[in-house]
Amino acid sequence: MRSRRRASTRAAGSLLATLGLAIAMPSATRAADPFYEGLLAEGATAYERGLYPAATEAFHLACFGLLEEPPRLAACLVKLGLAQAAAGDPDGLRESFERIGQIEDRFGAYREALIPEEERLAFETELARHVPRTQLGQVPLLQERARDAAAEQIATLPARERRKAIEARLRRNAADALALSLLVELELASNRKRRALEAADELIAATPDNPESRCLRGRALAADDRCSEAVPDLGLCAREQMGAQLAETALSCLARIERWSAASDLLAELPPATRSAPAVQRLADQVEAALSRPSDEEPEPATEEEILLATAEPVDNPGGSPVEPAASLPPSLAPSMIATGPHPATAELESLRREVDTVATREALEGLYQRVAALANRHPDFPEAQYVAGRVAYLGKRWQEAADFFRRGGQPPSERAELLFYMAVAYFESGDGILARELIEAALPRLERTAFVRSYVDRILTPDAAAGQDAPELN
Whose CA is closest to 430, among 456, 402, 411? Predict the structure, then answer.
């Protein structure tokens, strides 16, 4: 029977090619021969009774009578494909898919075909199971619909069965983008943040240029409270289709790192229904309030710093510390050395300081660090040079070098709360929890309590922080 079906398939392909001219000029009014209509009914009856090989034979023959009516032919081929799948003939299903692809490309036949939605969904689900992704990609409409159908089917399963279905797909193909994206969704729903991130990274490796994959990774990063890293990925989410939950995630992250203008831009591009959702509206009010603050009350943003802190890899003293030893360093909390009059290196330092506010890549940060460190080493008596060098080291997670530069500069006045905060973090991460606590307490009265700042204040002021034990890495 199987060889007979294959012969029928080859005959169908041959006949399709032979009648190519007829297909090229389809008749909109010509009705199918009653003989073929009878075969369609016969195939449907056999399919309903579970006689799938017989249904396959009937549908094969019936489709011949519809060659001049592409939309009806597409509908017939869908029935044939379903019968082939049910009969355990994936090769036959793939051949039916190819035939649909041909008439869809030339006539839009599948798009126009009158196919019951349940039947169309079942067919697209079978395509997702049995047709390779590269082959599906030859018919973009079917590729997209097959992916949606498979996702819908798996998503309706209970969590345990859903995981089994996803894992089965991944066993067949570890780079299955659909299965990986569904796995990220499942892990997020299960609050397994680290596993969601692992699956998201695997998804990015499988589909590096896919904005939807980046968007999904952004959600996983946001769930893990890594907003500085999440924001660039969330920025690739399709805003015109963004639902309330995703919009809330993106806006919350932007608010957390105080990207108020970016949050306002996002709000302006959201669909009206999403924009009016209660959670989104509450965030919109927060954004509006932040943007309406007088400029003299606006806290100094640390967006670039937070991004660099989250993305730069720590450097463990490559080639030794660049901080040259001084003959006598001031005590850790001694008043800073105050120079009388402008220091000769002030102009050079100000130029470097401006670069700190615009550095955007790790490579640029590394180059800037080398120049600032060299200036600070040439002028160990210039506290501001030590502070700037310490801040740049802090941005690169060079915790020990940052602490050394800050220590050489001495403690700044209490009104320089941001600088005290940088120093506290550097001391804390380099193991001096006692000094970090003193510095953070000195900074607190004037320190703007952003979420980022609060995360470190809480760590530094915990009971075991003074010992500098197990300082958690900032993610």
Answer: 402
* Range 304-467: architecture per CATH: Alpha Horseshoe (1.25)
CATH class of segment(s) 159-297? mainly alpha
Helix (H) or strand (E) holding 22: helix 20-24
DSSP state of 32: P
Dist CA 124 CA 146 (whole Å): 4
Instruction: Give how far Cα 24 sits from Cα of 17, 115, 307, Å.
Output: 11, 22, 57
Q: Give the percent of the chain with pLDDT over 90.
A: 13
CA dist., res. 181 & res. 170, Å (int): 11
Could you report the per-residue pLDDT of 59-118, keeping only the tens digit for each? 999 998 888 889 999 999 999 999 999 999 989 988 998 898 888 888 888 888 898 878
Pair 473, 224: CB distance under 8 Å: no
Let me know if the fold of 2-155 is the same as that of 304-467: yes
Distance (Å, whole) CA 142 – CA 99: 12
* 306 half-sphere exposure, CB direction, 13 A CA radius: 25
